[in-house]
Amino acid sequence: KVLIDVPRPDLAEELSQSETKIRVLQDTLQQVLDRREEERQSRQLLELYLEALKTEDSILSKVAEPHAAPRKEMDVVDTGTSSTDSSATTALSNQVLAALKEKPAPELCLDSQDLELVQKEEAAALASALGWDEQKAGAVQAACEQELSRRLRQVQALRSLRSAAKAKKALP
């Protein structure tokens, strides 16, 4: 990069070469940098594709599970119904509540279905179940919502890539 940025006359003088050779050298170096950047971007896209594929497989396996069977570790908390007490009932599993309490970034530890449950939970109920204030519970809910949104965008990107791949295969 430094050699590309050096003015040609200065570099030609320093290397005792003609400006034409320096131009060819700088052009070649620029092509190498461009190729490396394309390779880096391709690797990132491939990693994103593989991550989206894993996420989609995870989501599909969750969807394939029978919905009729309730989760075994359901925990329902009821703190009352008066307006001075924050009325809170939550149907989040003990495992989800433990992850929310103990993990520094629980949204990364939960599957998409659990993220959805946390997102849909009332902030007051979640705060009560976790023993937190509503602001902290709301912040965790927002983080869960952002992670779920990110995962859904990855699935959409994967579907888009698959559609593009199918369209490309269909071309003669």
UniProtKB/TrEMBL annotation:
This protein's UniProt keywords: Coiled coil
Organism: Erithacus rubecula (European robin)
Gene3D superfamilies, per the entry: C-terminal domain of DFF45/ICAD (DFF-C domain) (1.10.1490.10)
Compositional bias segments (type: Low complexity): 78-89
Record bears the keyword Chaperone: no
Keyword rRNA processing: no
Any one Pfam family match given in the protein's UniProt record, by short name: DFF-C
Cited InterPro entries: DFF-C, DNA_fragmentation_mid_dom
Chain intervals with Basic and acidic residues compositional bias: 64-75
Domain DNA fragmentation factor 45kDa middle: 2-118
Coiled-coil region list: 15-42
Superkingdom, natural source: Eukaryota
Region (Disordered): 64-89
Annotated protein name in UniProt: DFFA factor
